[in-house]
Design goal:
Rossmann fold; D-amino Acid Aminotransferase, Chain A, domain 1; Cathepsin D, subunit A, domain 1; 7-stranded antiparallel beta sheet; 7-stranded mixed beta sheet; 11 helices; 26% helix
Length: 458
């Protein structure tokens, strides 16, 4: 068994943590008890993070291991590396690796790194992103290990930057080295460059899309921020598809932000959209379209006051969504697509779904789901105790599902449930992550609720 003791460099430097002493104490006690455990020490500065849709990897370069290769990770001191450690916590949970301290999952997102991992986890399209505090290692990762992901030109931006500050378009390796050295006191992320004709700010307030502002960079610049000289235009909502509008609202909800500026960019070569950032305090005053933004805010505030309910334990429960003992689930957005009846089971931590034969080929997982072949690049195997009490190896994957018109990302095991009455089981983890309460006296609650909303809005 390999256990990683993970520290932030700042807490060690300030004498608030002593990694080597802790490692020796734990190793001595484990050896004394006859436990086959190897304790290793890691530091935030020695980690690199690749975050791309269907390809997420956190690498511990000090011990030459990926984070999911450990059997247990103890995040001992987060310190100034809180956002890095929070990213590790999400990653470990999704990979099924036990870790401490799970309190990190409750921390607020404060920089671009955690924004990327949280949006990727919910299936929102993002630009491939790389982070590493070690500057020389960052250069090697871009030009060697992940050269297939990051081809020049690339974007280099400060993790805590705003309004276009410290945001550079980098054309070659020499320019990347020059910029990183010149800004040695800041941490940066690298992102794949998306060919574009500008970007779009989706203004969200009170859980609804209030307005959309198109922004275009001035000649000779890649920055479309109005604070950097970009030109802005208010655009009608119906100029954008339902998918991107819905996802923009979802992006704000992921971070629990009642007011947010969600930045979206469309690839000019293929029309695909990518989420760049979810700004928690979009500029209203001293910015473009002050009156329009103020109008959006006033409308949202009036609605919030009209619908407000004072806090009470009963109201807190009422604010959650209910799900029935059974729900109809589709695996495609088309409302006419085949659906299965899923059983909600609060006694099971993980969800489970019946599939056809599962095959591993070329580092990918192939399986049949309701007559359609599904290919997953990200998956892992974990021992799970079956309903009969036996431990067995199962594949874990994350797939999109639809209940009514609502879209979710479901992490589930693949298993043979052909002998079961229900071919799909929804477990506690999915219910908890999506704030759902099971009403065991009812069926198809969420399916019906979403359908009624869809008809009412038609």
């Amino acid at each position: 068994m390999k256990v990683l003791l993970l520290f932030s460099n700042s807490t060690v430097r300030k004498g608030r943590a002593f990694p080597d002493d802790l490692q020796k104490l734990l190793q001595l006690e484990a050896d004394k008890r006859g436990e086959t455990i190897e304790f290793l020490v890691g530091y935030a500065r020695s980690l690199s993070y690749l975050i791309a849709n269907n390809r997420v990897k956190i690498r511990d370069h000090r011990n030459h291991m990926n984070l999911e290769e450990y059997d247990f990770v103890y995040i001992r001191k987060a310190g100034s590396a809180m956002q890095q450690m929070q990213t590790c916590a999400y990653y470990l949970r999704d990979k099924g690796i036990p870790f401490w301290d799970s309190e990190l999952l409750q921390a607020n997102s404060r920089n671009k790194l955690t924004q990327m991992i949280m949006m990727e986890r919910k299936g929102l399209p993002i630009a491939p992103t790389l982070f590493c505090r070690n500057r020389s290692r960052l250069l090697r990762l871009v030009t060697k290990r992940y050269a297939d992901v990051f081809t020049f030109p690339i974007i280099l931006k400060a993790t805590g930057g705003s309004r276009g500050d410290a945001n550079y378009l980098i054309h070659d390796e020499a320019e990347l080295l020059e910029k990183v050295k010149a800004e040695s006191n800041r941490s940066f992320i690298v992102q794949a460059f998306i060919p574009n004709n500008g970007d779009y700010r989706f203004f969200i307030a009170g859980g609804r899309l209030r307005g959309i502002i198109g922004r275009k960079a001035q000649d000779g610049s890649h920055l479309s921020n109005t604070s950097q000289g970009g030109q802005a235009t208010i655009l009608p909502h119906d100029e954008f598809g339902e998918e991107v509008r819905t996802q923009a609202v979802q992006a704000a909800q992921i971070f629990g932000r009642d007011v947010a500026g969600v930045d979206v960019m469309f690839d000019s070569t293929n029309g695909k959209h990518y989420f760049l950032e979810v700004n928690r305090a979009p500029q209203i005053e001293h910015a473009s379209f002050e009156e329009e933004k103020a109008g959006w805010m006033v409308t949202a505030i009036v609605n919030a006051v009209a619908n407000h309910q004072p806090f009470s334990p009963e109201n807190e429960k009422a604010g959650k969504k209910f799900v029935g003992r059974f729900e109809y689930v589709r695996f495609q957005k088309d409302k006419n697509a085949p659906r299965v009846i899923a059983k909600t089971d609060t006694g099971a931590d993980s969800s489970s779904i019946h599939t056809g034969p599962v095959q591993e080929r070329d580092g990918k997982l192939y399986f049949d789901l309701e007559g359609n072949e599904v290919i997953c690049e990200e998956y892992f195997i974990k021992k799970v105790r079956s309903s009969s009490g036996h431990l067995e190896d199962r594949y874990f994957v994350t797939i999109p599902i639809y209940i009514g018109k609502k879209h979710y990302m479901l992490r589930t095991t693949l298993s043979d449930r052909s002998a079961m009455k229900n071919t799909m089981l929804i477990g506690r983890r999915f219910l908890r992550e999506n704030h759902l309460i099971v009403d065991v006296s009812r069926r198809f609650v969420l399916s019906t609720a979403n359908t009624k909303k869809e008809k009412k809005g038609a």
